[in-house]
Hints:
extended; 7-stranded mixed beta sheet; alpha+beta; 4 helices; CATH 2.40.50.140; single chain
Amino acid sequence: MATRSVRVFITDARLSYPALDEPKETMAGNGDLKYQATFLIAPDNPCVAKIKDAIKQIAIAEYGDKAKAVVTNREKIPLKKGDDKENIPDGYAGMLYISAKSKNRPELRDANPKIRIIDKEEIREKFTAGYRVNAYVDLYPYAVRNSGGAIIKSGIAASLVSVQFAGYADAFSGVAKPAESEYPDCSAEAEASSAAAYAGYGAPTPAAPVNNSYPQAAPAPVGNGYPPVGNSYPQAQPAPVNNGYPQAAPTAPWSQAARPAEPPVADDGLPF
Length: 272
């Protein structure tokens, strides 16, 4: 017997790979066009427990004694770990995420929920990858069958229902960022350490003397009675390395708003 979908409310998420102004082809590459979005959720967000509980409910009702195999297989459930992605995209490290799709255009609302957003330009402006959002998605069981009717793929997926703009944040680049180890250390400390390492390996080669045996061209006079430009003027000194200035405090990552304590979800014996 088919299981009805379970609607969950995702709060304090960050938006990734949005296609909310118009449908786009899905990753399946079969020409199927859908509205879609991925929601990045901090592991300590209270809505995570509710999402897990909904997944367990569907798995038990739909798959019975195979429920454990479903909820412990990340390929079969919509809640996934950002750290498991290959070439982790911007914003995914340390986060959980849910990707949701729909053939129907989702309802889009502003920070003031009474205001619906329907203009495509405003949709692209308000629902940029990296911005904060809330969303409603429906979790449901699915099964893909071959031409003979045999199930070749099954699990639990998420359908996109509604998204609310909740605030601006740093936009995601959408690509993986190089690791710290892939950059050279160009700090003043590193340069000083390098100079010290090479100290004593011979005196520096003296500069070639200037050939003063030839008459030097006199500098062109500057008009208005000003003295000619020469080398007797003090030379501009190179700008000092910015180590003597107070350093700006590191930008704190986008933080979650304080949340009220949530009642624990009843333990049904299924690991997650």
